TrEMBL record:
Residues 6-143, 195-276 form the UspA domain. Belongs to the universal stress protein A family. InterPro entries: Rossmann-like_a/b/a_fold, Universal_stress_UspA, UspA. It comes from Rufibacter radiotolerans. This is Universal stress protein UspA.
Length: 280
């Protein structure tokens, strides 16, 4: 029997939250899960003094009303689901609150729904899920609101196969997901124009990657496209994988604005559930 997995699911009680719970149910059918459902009441961290009563700069009546609403929504949710969960109402910035909670509780995995973001808003602000991926150290599975959720028979893994340092904790989680579903891993290299004459070297990198991580039941794939996110999407449309996995360097600030993150772009636009993990 698999070891119990501690999973955090941020909930705002909107339909997109229930997409995350749907995926959670898929995992629960295969292994024991300790579930933490977390709702964040967003306030300026400098205004929050630990409770509504002691936070003098906030509207206390409004805060109590939001807390009461959250408790009622959790109570309703308990009547709708067939699993036990621990509930928490946090106060502060969304990303910081979730990241701190995940670290404090030593969460193994975060699952969250996302509506995505587009255009200039995506470049400057991004979606809430993007921010959580960027600042949370544990693996995050994001589920776009329009994604269909199916049993995980095929895992598509997009990686920097030349990058030597893969985080053991994240790799172990990916292997657990493969094992409990009996899935095949598909390692995908997107070939851009400048990669045209490097296919042999890239294949050697992929084989070394698989051997170093002691992967089993896997295949190698190449797909030609002008951008990695577009290539992943197009390959996925052709082959219908059930889960996409990708590492992220978690760039922040100005560096992120100019260089971006392929993983975070996929968070907003991936047509399958997406597991992201930090490369360190």
């Amino acid at each position: 029997m698999e070891k119990q997995l501690k999973v955090m699911v941020p909930v705002d009680f909107m339909p997109v939250s229930f997409k995350a719970l749907e995926f959670l149910g898929l995992l629960m059918d295969q292994m024991p899960i300790e579930t933490h459902l977390v709702h964040v009441i967003q306030v300026n961290a400098t205004d929050w003094a630990g409770s509504s009563e002691s936070s003098e700069t906030l509207d206390r009546a409004e805060m109590r009303a939001m807390e009461q609403t959250a408790e009622e929504q959790f109570a309703q949710l308990r009547q709708q689901v067939d699993f036990k969960f621990t509930q928490h109402v946090l106060h502060g910035g969304l990303t910081t609150s979730l990241a701190n909670y995940a670290n404090l509780q030593q969460v193994d995995l975060v699952i969250m729904g996302t509506e995505g973001a587009d255009g200039w808003y995506e470049k400057i602000s991004g979606s809430e899920a993007q921010h959580v991926v960027r600042y949370t150290d544990v693996p995050v599975i994001t589920i776009h609101q329009n994604v269909g959720i199916t049993p995980i028979h095929n895992i598509l893994w997009v990686a920097d196969f030349a990058y030597e340092k893969q985080p053991q904790r994240s790799i172990s989680l990916i292997k657990v997901l493969q094992r409990i579903f009996g899935a095949k891993i598909h390692l995908l290299q997107i070939l851009q124009k400048e990669d045209a004459h490097q296919e042999l070297a890239l294949r050697e990198n992929m084989m070394r990657f698989a051997n170093n991580l002691q992967l089993e039941n896997y295949e190698l794939h190449f797909h030609r496209d002008f951008k990695v996110p577009t290539g992943v999407r197009n390959f996925n449309q052709e082959s219908e994988k059930n889960l996409v996995v990708i590492g992220t360097h978690a760039r922040k600030g100005v560096n992120h604005l100019f260089y971006g993150s392929i993983a975070e772009t996929l968070v907003n636009h991936c047509i399958r559930p997406l597991l992201t993990y930090h490369l360190k």
